[in-house]
Design goal:
By secondary structure, the chain is an alpha+beta fold. Helix content is 33%, strand content 27%. The chain binds flavin-adenine dinucleotide.
């Protein structure tokens, strides 16, 4: 029995690792030749860390360079508030961990390769599905050595939000829209910069800065579709907008030399009606593209992988075709947590982000946010929602 997973992101690599650790023959196909791409979220949540603990690889993982955040702070106008306090979570790691995602994926892939039945093919791009009647029986793949077919008892689409696998499988999605996009850029870190700077909301703008050691990875949130207009106004105006948000960046915004230093990330929120059909299952962003709000997308992708492994490993062991019923059980298990998370993200997008992006002047923290900042006990609630989410998964042993 074998499984072909399309996509070497958090969902695909984690599922590959888990199936291979149970002796299932797995091939993970990744179209890029490495994991080293700028756009990769950097947050590893306590629930993901708990899974690494359950797998017995947390100590190795914590040797990879990272930073820990026990309290998440944000600055709205002049007010700096603690938004979430992770230090009371019922998990072994009571913090949010920041690590460039390529390091996280390299770590997981390295752990996976320790199992003889794990195979990860880099530079291998799935171009379509193979069928026998209605049932998916494999993947057509393009590699530098040419095209070939891979036959599999189960194909998993973990190829992210522009999934070609879900399209080739004829799976329909519901698009929820988004009022924002993000401009992604890097600025150097310099001595004397604030520690653990995260989000700043002011002047109708949102700037998120992720600490990547010697530089800041910055996301400047803009109204959806505004990038052409921003480019027309010129790079100097964008640089000035960034400095207005964080004046300490004034001595380095010139590092944005031209528009090739600014990448547009289109935010998309959607969900498949059916995550599977005979021989095919979609997980992670391929089943439900997440908004960047809360930085929970990686986490949900990992949770999907764990739930899928828990349900599918006994099926693989039983032998014979993987039943559609088992694939539907994966969707049933993960659909509610996804729906709840997307619902909250959509509420924040539509009632907070949209409002922020349509205003102009200085901003003040609204009463509920000030209340959250003032009462430490309340800060445990968002920590639980973001850090653990609804229905956290656990690795079933054996
Ligand atoms: C602006 C923005 C910022 C974000 N920031 C965060 C954050 O800080 N923290 C967080 O948790 N989430 C964040 N997210 C969400 C997060 O990036 C995703 O939810 C998460 O990466 C999904 O994981 P995945 O494995 O399902 O898909 P992906 O991470 O998208 O991985 C899919 C993989 O499949 C590969 N692939 C695609 N097509 C093919 C093909 N045909 N053949 C072979 N391989 C293929 C891709 O190269 C990719 O490596 C952010 C999202 C946005 C839009």
């Amino acid at each position: 029995m074998n499984c072909c997973i399309v996509g070497g992101g958090p969902a695909g690599v984690m599922l590959g690792y888990l199936l291979a650790s149970a002796g299932v023959e797995v091939t993970v196909l990744e179209k890029h030749t490495d994991f080293f791409r700028d756009f990769r979220g950097d947050t590893v949540h306590p629930s993901t860390l708990e899974i690494l603990y359950e797998l017995g690889i947390i100590d190795e993982f914590l040797k990879v360079p990272h930073s820990k955040v026990r309290r998440l702070t944000g600055q709205i106008g002049e007010t700096t508030v603690t938004l979430a306090d992770f230090s009371h979570l019922p998990t072994h790691c009571k913090f949010l961990l920041f690590m460039p995602q390529w390091d996280f994926l390299n770590f997981l892939a390295r752990q996976g390769r320790a199992f003889p039945s794990f195979q990860m093919e880099m530079g291998a791009e799935a171009s379509g599905l193979l069928f026998d009647g209605d049932r998916v029986t494999g993947v057509r793949v393009k590699t530098p050595a040419g095209e070939r077919d891979i036959r599999a008892d189960l194909v998993v689409g973990a190829d992210g939000r522009s999934s070609i696998i879900r399209e080739a499988g004829g799976l329909q999605s519901i698009d929820f829209g988004s009022p924002m996009d993000a401009l992604w850029m890097r600025l150097s870190k310099q001595p004397g910069d604030p520690e653990q700077l995260f989000g700043r909301i002011d002047y109708g703008r949102i700037l998120v800065m992720l600490d990547r050691g010697d530089y800041w990875q910055c996301a400047f949130v803009i109204p959806k579709g505004d990038f052409d207009e921003i480019q027309r106004r010129g790079l100097d105006i964008l640089r000035a907008d960034i400095v207005k948000m964080n004046p300490f960046l004034a001595n380095r915004v010139a590092e944005l030399r031209d528009w090739s230093d600014v990448k547009l990330l289109t935010v998309q929120v959607d969900r498949l009606r059916e995550w599977c059909r005979g021989g095919l299952l979609c997980i992670g962003d391929a089943a439900h593209a997440m908004s960047p709000i809360g930085g929970v997308g990686i986490n949900l992708a990992i949770q999907d992988a764990v739930a899928a492994a828990n349900i599918l490993i006994p099926e693989f062991r039983r032998g014979g075709a993987i039943s559609i019923d088992a694939l539907r059980r994966v969707q049933k298990r993960r659909e509610l947590p996804t729906r709840i998370t997307q619902r909250v993200q959509l509420l924040i997008q539509n009632f907070v982000i949209r409002r922020v992006l349509s205003s102009e002047g200085r901003m003040a923290a609204p009463f509920p946010v000030r209340l959250l900042g003032a009462i430490p006990l309340l800060q445990r609630v968002p920590a639980r929602l973001v850090g653990l989410g609804y229905r956290p998964e656990h690795v079933k042993s054996g």
